[in-house]
Amino acid sequence: MAAIKPKHQRLVLALIALAAILAAGALATWALRNQASYFYVPSEIVANPPDLDRAVRLGGMVEMGSIEMEADGVTIRFVVGDGTARVPVRFKGLAPSLFVEGSGVVAEGKLAKDGTFIADNLLARHDENYVPRELQDMTEHQKDAVISETVGAK
Amino acid sequence: MIAEIGLAALWLAAALAALQLIAGSLSLTGKAESLTGTVRPVAIVQGALALLAFAALIALFARTDLSVKLVAMNSHSAKPLIFKIAAAWGNHEGSMLLWVTVMGLAGAFVAQFERRLPEKTMLATLAGQAFVSLGFYAFLLISSNPFERLNPPAGEGNGLNPLLQDIGLAFHPPTLYLGYVGLSVAFSFAIGALLTRQVGPAFAKAMRPWVLGAWIFLTLGITAGSYWAYYELGWGGWWFWDPVENASLMPWLAATALLHSVSVLASRDALRIWTVMLGVVAFSMSMVGTFLVRSGILTSVHAFAVDPERGSFILVLLAIYIGGALTLFGLRAATVSEGKQFALVSREGALVFNNVMLTAILGIVLFGTLYPLVTEVFDTKVSVGPPYFNPVGAVFFVPMVLILMVGPLLRWRKDSFARIAKVLILPVILMLGAVAVVLGIAEYRGIDGALPFVGIVLAAGLAIASLLPLRERNLLRTPLTTWGMVLAHLGVAVALFGMAVESAYKVEKLVAARVGETTSVGPWKVELRGIEPVPGPNWTAIEADLLASYKGGATSAVKPQSRSFWTPPQMTTESALLTRWNGQLYAVIGDEAQDGRWQLRLWWKPFVTLIWFGGIMIALGGLLSLIGRVAADIRRGVARGRIADRHESRAQ
Amino acid sequence: MSTQGEGRQKISPMAVWLPLFLFGVFFALVIYGLASPASRDVESAMIGKPLPEFALRPAIADRPGLSSSDLSIGEPRLLNIFASWCIPCAIEAPQLETLNAQGIEVVGIAIRDRPDDVAAFLARNGNPFSRIGADDVSAVQLGIGSSGVPETFVIDGNGIILYQHIGVIRREDLPLIMDKLAEAAR
């Protein structure tokens, strides 16, 4: 190293910096393509299912009367619909307190071979003002139903 | 009456900020030298008035004055006093008032005590500070007046989000705000220095305590926020890479880089342009963070009252300040004269490397956070989570930690690795040992599964390496700033160890248990003794009475709750924690299954508490450095004063 | 990124503008993000459509309840959705009083409320309503496309929804509401 002039050493440093930042940009872009989890509504997931091992999010309304608990007491099954398609969902865990039939939910997880969506996590509304952004683009009536549920509750 | 006093004080403070800006810039251009003397006193009075306005708001909340709209919307007469007071800043208007208050006080402090910089740079700095404050005053007075009256007064207040009714959270946002405001002072210094082209060690020394202070608060804020999310959300995780969390992490990353580059500038007069730019970037990140959180442009798991209109206002301020500052940077950066040279292998070189790595991580976090917005342009909805942030962040974090072990041992200007190779044997041995241990007890689990093990190995090496700067030194005579650095770097190792061990070795158990049933999780046996309703001041809860014993030892009670609040109506999960020196038992109660069993979620999280201990150590390290710096500054100031006195007495 | 220029007299003129450029990209992105989702504005799907059939019991003792037939009797009506537990509703009360004082008939639907609470609310904030129906399960509220409280609808003489006002009626909203009512009377 001692043989290199200070000015050249600075150039090396600058090149390392530039390389690091270019690498960061390239890596980030590449990784985001592969790792970002896409959002589906039921009709999309039925028409155009994602790869089986790919983590995605499914958003829709929990159908009335569809929530069932399995014998182990911690696994629930329910159906998420958007008015045109229905997707059965299985979730093992504690459902959020605002997770109820007839209201909106976003499930994070993967689609299984048999067409069941295996959820690792459920997101329901977090407070009375919070609607998952994805739900905002659902049909007006469904959205209104979600919002009213929360605002109207006493 | 109190509300009117508060509002009047706020208007006056805004007017003074305008005066401070005008007087500062006029005397800077040489058009009105007579105004020069007014700038500092105006800054001080402005700070006092802002404080008065904030005190008025606190008083209104303490008395639950329901004729004030903000109080009626956010508080409730039945709330404990401490939460009434916390409600004052637990909302948008109040938090903005807190922001301008701290900003005003910081400006007053700078005006009163900062005497090292050339007067012109000072004027430019104070004018810059006034310019930033003015935007926030306008924001408050135009679109979010906290003192607005309600006619007729409300009968009862609207309560406060029960998720936010928590002592930790009551002090969490102000902590972050203090950090953001500290960065705004650093920003003003950077603008002042750019305007007058006085980018040098004096500028760095004036800026450094503010960066340090801001960084301490940001560190504490992130640590507290992480712990809050950990026990309050009931999901068992301590970091979700959620936009709100990223919004607090990004300013911290920038401030960490700034903190190190400003040290180089202060002691070696190198990295001039880079430091100025980081000063601008760090404050930009706080504003970008505030914008992302408040505008609701990104989906977050954390409850926040969002308001696109206010978000737009912050965006306008962002455009003016950051766009303006970066334009100024573009115009001036090329004319700032060159700093000192240094070799590739030197303390400066290591710090530059870490700065680059931190910047890369910052870019990765920013890009990942904004990516859902990018894809929305193409009409695709995505969310970005740990599968992206963890491995991609690690690509830059790992080399950073490796250099972090070496950097503090290197000399300034020029050094060689050969000189310090002998010292480094110890950490290398420790890391190899850790590799052996880790490989001995775990099977390979893919890239994601491998990360925690890399973390354990790095933490082991860094823990030793961070202590090495103390070797062969008289510990009593080692400067406080060195102790601070050692403690902060050791804190990084401790936190990293906690994160890695928790990720690698946590045990989770999800069961539906009958009363009287015993279940096990990791080394724990947990018995469900009963389920009871519990009344609270403004909630009722269902509580699980659990009896836990570690490896068959003594038993302790653990009582997780599921609470229902009624103003506003909402359910929350209260996890229960049992802390041992080597980890935590984490228990959450869920719903009742049909047959009288209750859902329980239990985790054994070994060494998880080290994450936040590490965070506190990092902040404490910062505090030691800050005390060391300020004490040295005062000593130097006193000495300079004495010399000046002597000169005067000689002259007489 | 300006490290590459660090220390040299001449810093690349491109490099110093890069941060501003990146900021510009960020700015454009968030502007697009804020502006593009049309769904941010809750446009009612019910405008121009008739009210659904409903009949609500009285919410308080001294006012009759409300049914859809009360809203198609040839005269325009202002229908206000409110609740005693809703603070913003208290804020818009003076505006409803003003409208009522100008001879406009205002009818109300109280959402998920108790008679005593409604009575106390009206005693405190004034009672501009000629009829108040109690909607305990938000059924009517949902049916007419309302998503929260307060909301106000202009209904023409044939029971057709002409206008939906979401949120508090502020003083400056009054002319618009008056216009819509005049339109409804035609």
Structural description of this entry:
The complex is a heterotrimer of chains A (154), B (652) and C (186). With 154 residues, chain A is an alpha+beta fold. Chain A has helices at residues 6-35, 42-47, 140-152, and strands spanning 37-40, 56-62, 68-69, 75-81, 86-92, 104-111, 117-123. Chain A folds into two domains: 1-36; 39-152, OB fold (Dihydrolipoamide Acetyltransferase, E2P) (Beta Barrel). Chain A has a five-stranded mixed beta barrel with strand order 2-4-5-7-6. In chain A, β4 (75-81) and β5 form a beta hairpin. Among the domains of chain B are: 1-159; 507-606. Chain B has 18 helices and eleven strands. Chain B is globular and about 90 Å long. The model of chain B has no long low-confidence stretch (mean pLDDT 85). With 186 residues, chain C is of the alpha/beta class. Chain C folds into two domains: 2-39, no CATH class; 55-185, Glutaredoxin. Helices cover 35% and strands 18% of the residues of chain C. Chain C has five helices and seven strands; from the N terminus they run αβββαβαβαββα. In chain C, the strands form two sheets. Chain C has a five-stranded mixed beta sheet with strand order 5-4-3-6-7. A two-stranded antiparallel ribbon of chain C has the order 1-2. Chain C starts with 12 loop residues before the first helix and ends with a helix. Chains in contact: A-B, A-C, B-C. The interface between A and B is large, with 50 and 62 residues.
Alpha-beta classification of chain B: alpha+beta
| Amount of beta strand of chain B | 5-15%
Low-confidence regions of chain B:
none
Count of strand segments of chain B:
11
Which percent bin holds the helix content of chain B?
55-70%
| Residues in β-strands, percent of chain A | 25-35%
How many strands, what sense, and barrel or not for the largest sheet of chain A? 5 strands, mixed, barrel
Distance from first to last alpha carbon of chain B:
55 Å
Which key terms come to mind for this protein?
heterotrimer; B: 652 residues; alpha+beta; six-stranded antiparallel beta sheet; four-stranded antiparallel beta sheet; 18 helices; 11 strands; C: 186 residues; alpha/beta; Glutaredoxin
Short description:
The complex is a heterotrimer of chains A (154), B (652) and C (186). With 154 residues, chain A is of the alpha+beta class.
Note the topology.
The complex is a heterotrimer of chains A (154), B (652) and C (186).
Chain A lengths: L5 H30 L1 E4 L1 H6 L8 E7 L5 E2 L5 E7 L4 E7 L11 E8 L5 E7 L16 H13 L2
Parallel strand pairs in A: 1-2, 5-7
Antiparallel strand pairs in A: 2-4, 2-6, 3-4, 4-5, 6-7
Chain B lengths: L1 H28 L6 H27 L6 H6 L6 H7 L4 H22 L5 H25 L23 H4 L1 H25 L4 H32 L10 H26 L3 H24 L12 H25 L14 H31 L4 E2 L2 H21 L10 H25 L4 H22 L12 H26 L1 E7 L4 E4 L2 E12 L3 E12 L4 E4 L2 E6 L2 E6 L1 E5 L2 E10 L5 E9 L2 H43 L1
Antiparallel strand pairs in B: 2-11, 3-4, 4-5, 5-6, 5-7, 7-8, 9-10, 10-11
Helix pairs in contact in B: 1-2, 1-6, 2-4, 2-5, 2-6, 5-6, 5-8, 6-8, 6-12, 8-9, 8-11, 9-10, 9-18, 10-11, 10-13, 11-12, 13-14, 14-16, 15-16, 16-17, 17-18
Chain C lengths: L12 H23 L19 E2 L9 E2 L9 E6 L4 H15 L4 E6 L3 H11 L3 E7 L3 H5 L7 E5 L5 E6 L7 H12 L1
Parallel strand pairs in C: 3-4, 4-5
Antiparallel strand pairs in C: 1-2, 3-6, 6-7
